[in-house]
Specification:
Belongs to the PHAF1 family. By secondary structure, this protein is α+β, with helices and mostly antiparallel strands. It has ten helices and 27 strands.
Length: 500
């Protein structure tokens, strides 16, 4: 394998993009190890280890963007920088005999040239013979073992690293920034310079739609989509058409017609009583229904299977079925296309007017938006890239976002809706979860086998019982508020948000 040290085509890439590419080449990447925090998967960094390739990739938790590439074994890959080998192979071409990296002279004379002095890190073990000297260039840093007895602040670092006191580099780091000391404190929080996918670089809007940075949810069926280079796009549920969606975000990655009726019983008229339908999915007294959850194709194996619709003629409204789902895997969301329906109400503290009833119409519109969290450990992990969102509750700065723990989201939304007609009549339902089991049946493109069953060991039972057991079903819970449906993991992370 040849790894070209081109930061523009790697750093900033989404975890979804990198994992998809790595998994598609099992001969090149035979071993994949994903490490993340089971308690805080959306805040702590995510580490992708490729032991057979000598690489370790670090992503930030909230945005899941690649921030750091580490080469830990130089014998596992042929590293090239501007057509120059970073590590010279032996005369026989065999690099497997040693994991040592380039020597200081090779780095200094042939690869990158003069550099400012680096940093010396003394050994933590007082009996250790070697410390580490980190030599930084813009975007690249090398770690050289250096005899601790030879180190002195007054020494010329070029002479010191050229002497026998220093060994060849043991690791190399690739990052965004002028030097490692300047960037390490803000490595996982600074704005990435490059897009999530290298395919969008240098492409015009006519060729490829601008990538989505985040969704702003204002209630009353109104969403604003923040994009990297283009002005924000507006989505109004019940008004935005399929053609509008395609014009703004490009053709969907897939289109499916849904036949899943597994929770339709929960969308019956209000009331609990003998012989009546269970009522959990709608808010009493509001006329609003809790939307079906997860209309992407990864949760669709039922008595009736999903039907994939050809995307060749999606510009023709007559070619679409009455209800279909536009899957934008690389944008992180799905859109439910159906006949117009009245969206959820405005937030009580919002200045937006209540949405009006939608007239009967033959033109299909977007009636639901499903935003996927791509939480490590969740059942549909890596089906979509992570979608970030913000809920704007009023005209001030009162907001909730995709990294907010659900307990905080729930308490805030109950306070917001307290006293309103919808909040009073639906208070019981807003506090009762519906259990969604993703562990039975087949699931196309699921990566649960790849992850190794985190849900089985860390996400069992009620959310308030850390060591409960449900047989490893991988259950999540659904919580509904007017116009919003949250799918929540046992650690409190929001795996999916449906806006309807």
């Amino acid at each position: 394998m040849t790894v070209v040290a081109n930061r523009e085509k790697a750093l900033g890439a989404s975890l979804h993009n990198v994992l998809t590419r790595v998994k598609s080449h099992p001969q090149i990447y035979p071993e994949i190890d994903l490490v993340y925090s089971s308690a805080n998967p959306l805040h702590d960094p995510i580490v992708l280890k490729l032991p057979a390739n000598g690489l370790r990739l670090r992503f930030d938790g909230p945005d899941q963007r690649l921030r750091l590439i580490e080469v830990l074994d130089f014998s596992r890959a042929n590293l090239v920088y501007k057509n120059q080998e970073v590590v010279k192979a032996s005369k026989t071409g065999d690099m497997s005999s040693t994991s040592q990296g380039p020597g200081f002279r090779h780095v200094y004379n042939r690869l990158f040239g003069p550099s400012y002095p680096g940093e010396y890190v003394p050994p933590t073990d007082p009996h250790a013979q070697y410390g580490t000297y980190v030599l930084s260039y813009p975007g690249v840093a090398f770690s050289f073992p250096l005899q601790h007895s030879a180190w002195s602040e007054s020494c010329d670092f070029v002479a010191l690293l050229s002497s026998s006191a220093a060994l060849s580099a043991t690791s190399m780091s690739i990052f965004q920034g002028p030097s490692w000391p300047e960037v390490r404190a803000k490595l996982f929080i600074q704005q990435p310079q490059y897009p999530r996918s290298s395919t969008v670089m240098g492409k015009s809007r006519d060729v490829l739609a601008d990538e989505v940075e985040g969704f702003h949810i204002f209630g009353a069926g109104k969403l604003e989509v923040e994009r990297r280079n283009s002005p924000p796009a507006q989505i109004v549920l019940g008004e935005t058409t399929a053609q509008d969606l395609i014009a703004e975000f490009g053709p969907p990655d897939a289109i499916y017609r849904k036949h899943d009726r597994r929770i339709s019983i929960h969308r019956a008229a209000s009331g609990l009583g003998a012989g009546e339908a269970l009522h959990l999915g709608s808010l009493p007294g509001t006329g609003l229904e809790i939307a079906d959850t997860d209309h992407s194709s990864n949760n669709s194996i039922t008595d009736d299977s999903d039907e994939e619709v050809s995307s060749n003629n999606i510009s023709d409204p007559t070619s679409l079925p009455a209800e279909s789902f536009f899957n934008y895997f690389h944008h992180g969301f799905d859109a439910f296309i159906s006949y117009p329906a009245t969206p959820g109400p405005a937030f009580p503290l919002s200045s937006l007017p209540e949405p009006s009833s939608q007239p009967s119409a033959s033109q299909l519109t977007v009636t639901k938006i499903i935003l996927h969290g791509n939480v490590p450990g969740s059942y549909p992990f890596n089906r979509h890239r992570r979608s970030r969102w913000t809920i704007h509750l009023d005209s001030s700065d009162k907001t909730l976002n995709s990294e907010t723990p659900y307990d905080e989201i729930s308490q805030t939304l109950r306070d917001v809706w307290r006293g309103s007609e919808a909040g009073v009549s639906g208070r019981r339902d807003m506090q009762r979860p519906m259990v969604l089991n993703r562990g039975w049946g087949d699931s196309p493109e699921s990566s649960v086998e790849f992850l190794g069953g985190w849900e089985e060991s860390m996400a069992r039972g009620p959310r308030n019982v850390s060591d409960g057991h449900d047989g490893g079903l991988g259950n999540t819970e659904l919580f509904g508020f007017p116009g919003l449906l949250f799918e929540v993991l046992k650690n409190g992370s929001v795996s999916c948000l449906t806006v309807y």
